[in-house]
């Protein structure tokens, strides 16, 4: 960040242009109008904005530093993704600047602006949606970018994601075979690609296995533990409660388990729980929790490998990894 505290967002606001336009002007990108260049230059001068000289060297030199922005550093899945990505980067002689979006668009935007102003060669990003313009500015700056775990509609960059269908279908098949006809679902926000995808494959799996799609059994959280508690409380307080729950991520599953315990219910005997992500503590829960597993290590390593290809001027194909159901009671 410039010494006087003025940011590229301040310049854009004063000039009355988008963040992307301000970024292009300040980085010397030719695709800007004379009027925009004049307004941005005037605003930057008035604010005393001086872009980090290191960031301006991105076009000509490599620093062997990459930015990594995960959705929630407290989420064990993203912690494992970050660790694998960091190790893969170190193996290629790169170091990693880690950011935590905290499942929050504004926090995501602050980190993106920092990456724009810092000396990084590229960014691996788990997006919280499009945000308020910073993501567009990052793309328009030409900085190498790879999405991890999530994508954003209308933005075409290489990505590493997982296909939830196989794992969710196997989980629903398992619950159906065990006699469960009322399966509650705790989904993620529908503004995020993984939230939408996991909800859609769950609904499809119910239909494929001859189960009723009851909207009263479908709730939504924000991929964090407190929302899992609230969603589970809603489902467990219904006049006819579900006999099984599927939570679309591990932190919401943790919240659901806390709610189940507060109701005096027993896992396995009174209600079955399936969680997305094979996190270590789920295996050690009593009784252990069945999961839909995806390989966080492969996700993190693959994201860095794709980013290095982009940094080297290539256009790699996106990677979609499989999921599978792990029955802990077999």
Description of the structure:
The protein contains 13 helices and twelve strands. The N and C termini lie far apart (54 Å). The strands form two sheets. It has a six-stranded parallel β-sheet. Strands 7-6-8-9-10-12 form a six-stranded mixed β-sheet, sandwiched between helices. The protein has helices at 8-15, 19-26, 34-47, 53-56, 76-91, 105-117, 134-140, 165-177, 193-208, 225-236, 250-262, 280-284, 296-311; strands at residues 65-70, 95-100, 122-125, 145-148, 159-162, 183-187, 218-220, 244-247, 272-276, 290-293, 319-321, 324-326. It is elongated. It has 330 residues and is of the alpha/beta class. It folds into three domains: 1-51, Orthogonal Bundle (434 Repressor (Amino-terminal Domain)), CATH 1.10.260.40; 55-160 and 298-321, Rossmann fold, CATH 3.40.50; 165-293, Rossmann fold, CATH 3.40.50.
CATH superfamily grouping of the largest domain: Response regulator
* Tally of strands: 12
Shape: elongated
Biggest sheet statistics: 6 strands, parallel
Kindly report the oligomeric state of this protein: single chain
How helix-rich are the residues, as a percent range?
40-55%
Our count of helices gives: 13
The domain count comes to 3
Determine the CATH topology of the largest domain: Rossmann fold
Radius of gyration: 22 Å
* Strand proportion: 15-25%
Order of helices and strands: HHHHEHEHEHEEHEHEHEHEHEHEE
């Amino acid at each position: 960040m410039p010494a006087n505290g003025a940011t590229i967002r301040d310049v854009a606001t004063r000039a009355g242009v988008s963040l992307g336009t301000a970024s292009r002007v300040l980085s010397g990108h030719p695709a800007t109008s004379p009027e925009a260049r004049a307004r941005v230059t005037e605003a930057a001068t008035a604010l005393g904005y001086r872009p980090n000289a290191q960031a301006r060297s991105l076009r000509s030199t490599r620093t062997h530093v990459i930015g990594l922005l995960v959705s929630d550093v407290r989420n064990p899945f993203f912690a494992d993704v970050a660790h694998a990505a960091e190790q893969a980067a170190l193996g290629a002689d790169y170091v990693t600047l880690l950011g935590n979006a905290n499942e929050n668009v504004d926090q995501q935007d602050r980190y993106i602006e920092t990456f724009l102003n810092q000396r990084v060669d590229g960014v691996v990003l788990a997006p919280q949606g499009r945000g308020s313009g910073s993501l567009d500015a990052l793309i328009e700056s030409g900085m190498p970018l790879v999405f991890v775990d999530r994508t954003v509609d209308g933005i075409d960059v290489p990505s590493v994601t997982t296909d939830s269908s196989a794992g969710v279908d196997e989980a629903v098949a398992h619950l159906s075979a065990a006699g469960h006809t009322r399966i509650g679902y705790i989904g993620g926000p529908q503004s995020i690609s993984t939230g939408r995808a996991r909800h859609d494959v769950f609904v499809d799996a119910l239909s494929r296995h001859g189960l009723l799609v009851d909207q009263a059994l479908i709730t939504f959280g924000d991929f964090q533990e407190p929302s899992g508690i609230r969603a589970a409380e809603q489902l467990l307080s219904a006049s006819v409660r579900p006999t099984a729950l599927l939570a679309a991520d591990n932190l919401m599953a943790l919240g659901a388990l806390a709610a189940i315990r507060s109701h005096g219910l027993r896992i396995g005997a009174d209600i079955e729980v399936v969680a997305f992500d094979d996190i270590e503590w789920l295996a050690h829960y009593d009784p252990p929790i069945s999961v839909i597993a995806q390989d966080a290590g492969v996700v993190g390593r693959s994201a860095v490998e794709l980013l290095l290809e982009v940094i080297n001027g290539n256009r790699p194909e996106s990677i979609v990894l499989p999921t599978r159901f792990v029955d802990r009671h077999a």
